[in-house]
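Homework help board

Subject: predicted structure for assignment chain

Our instructor gave us this sequence and asked us to write out the predicted structure in token form, then describe one feature. I got the tokens but I'm not sure how to describe them. Can anyone check?
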Amino acid sequence: MRGVEDSSELTGFGSDFSENGGEATMQTILKCRRPDAVIVTDDYIAFGVIKALAEAGVNDIAVVGFNNTLRGRYQSPTLTSTSILLSSVPAPRGCPGDKKPGEPVSGFEIQILNKFIS
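My token output:
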């Protein structure tokens, strides 16, 4: 199957949307599970995830960010990143800023992810 199903098991762990937040979140995730990949909503969060993985000696988890920042090209390892033309995705219900760290992934986010990986 391609894509990701909308599931109550897909839950965000984030403390904030920064490099430090990405690092802290990945440290927490590594204590209880070892994912195959981590897909985050911003390249700077991804940089923190990569830092936490490196500090833990983990080098076999894929990390994907969004925004295509220039720093991602020079990051070691380089960051897989993308940007999505949001006009090609149906508009969400409610305000995008309403999501708080730790809330479940929404259907809109699943739609964006599926658009990206399909």
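Reply (TA_rk): Your tokens look well-formed. For the description, you could write something like this. The mean pLDDT is 74. That's the kind of observation they're looking for.
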